[in-house]
Amino acid sequence: MSLRCGLVGLPNVGKSTIFNALSNAGAESENYPFCTIEPNVGVVPVPDARLETLGELADSADVIPTSIEFVDIAGLVEGASEGEGLGNQFLANIREVDAIIHVVRCFDNDNVVHVSGSVDPARDIDIINTELLLKDLETVEKRVEKARKPAKSGEKEAKQRYEVYQRLYDHLSEGHWARTFPAKAAELPLVDELFLLTDKPVLYAANVGEEDLPAGNDYVDDVRAIAADEEARVVTISAEVEAQIAELEEDERALFLEEMGLQESGLERLIKEAYELLGLITFFTAGPKEARAWTIRRGTKAPQAAGTIHSDFERGFIRAETLHYDDYVEQGSEAAARDAGVLRMEGKEYEVKDGDVMLFRFNV
After folding, report:
1. 77-109 b/e with 16+ CB inside 10 Å = b?
2. Within its chain, how far is the Cα of 105 from the centroid?
3. For 75, which DSSP code?
4. What are the respective helix, strand and coil percentages of the chain, to the nearest 5?
5. Would strands 3-8 and 99-105 be described as parallel, antiparallel, or unpaired?
């Protein structure tokens, strides 16, 4: 599976600069609102030092990382839910992503215009959140009206649908997000089919100047306080620094990060937090032909993990020869791990763990 994250925020908060640095996709980045009109998509390899090590140990001819998609979506303005700016287009694009990376301006710079005239993270976040919530209210209100007449007929399923949508509308009307709606297991499909904007998990990217890395500043503290209330995550990132890192050769990046007092780039931190946000893990396959990383959701069982490689693997699943990365490195090879008794045979009920190295046996 490929993780798809949408970068959103007000105009001129640094979305496109961050996107360019992360994906090298060449998105426009100018000092005026609505520079980004069509969403730009960049497919970025997920950095994972374990994969390179596995490739060396397995003497693999090729090393193939898993990937993450970043989507740079047009800047939102107040009134977007009613079509202001590029609102309708923005809100349609955001429905297609797995998670929202909300870029918030946390730096002062008189040379970069702020659409609201000043830097205020709390106000900026409220504008975006309000517009998303208003659009969801509009969506649910239409469903309530559509379900009202069939519900009056007394048909059980129609009545249940109407009651769920009405409760959801009341929940949103009180300013709560769809992802906090207390739905029963049987009601979840009714909510999921609406593809509500406030049902998506959110990661705040606090965009600071170079001088405020890695700790952040008072603006970032405001973002952290808001995120804590929402049970959301925050990454402090500098678009300015990421742009510099993107221009460096691989062997120069580590030295640059060390000089900046950083252990890893903003890209790596964004990906790690996004994985945690969505409950994703990585498993590996390794052999002479290739070493490869695969992304799955935490709790995925072995047959379904096999299905991410090929549907035939899942249909004909017999067992999975499983070796954890740490054991692989400790033993130095698959053969040595087998001799040491740390290579396991796992069946259909096995939940794949992060770092598992797997070989699937299946019937054609």
Report:
1. bbebbeeebbbebbbebbeebbbbbbbbbbbee
2. 19
3. P
4. 45, 20, 35
5. parallel
Over range 125-133, report the average pLDDT.
90
CA 295 to mean position of chain CA atoms:
12
If DSSP codes are grouped into helix, strand and coil, which group holds residue 64? strand
Can you read off the two tokens belonging to residue 109?
Answer: 């710079």
Helix (H) or strand (E) holding 69, with range, is: strand 67-72
pLDDT digits 0-9 by tens, 191-248: 999 999 999 999 999 999 999 998 999 999 999 999 999 889 999 999 999 989 988 8
Assess whether pLDDT exceeds 60 at residue 57.
yes
Tell me the pTM. Answer: 0.84
What is the model's pLDDT at position 250? 80
The domains located in the chain, with CATH, are 3-47+66-118+200-277 (3.40.50.300), 130-198 (1.10.150.300), 299-362 (3.10.20.30)
Could you tell me the CA-to-CA distances from 3 to 250, 260, 265, 347 in Å, in that order?
24, 29, 19, 27
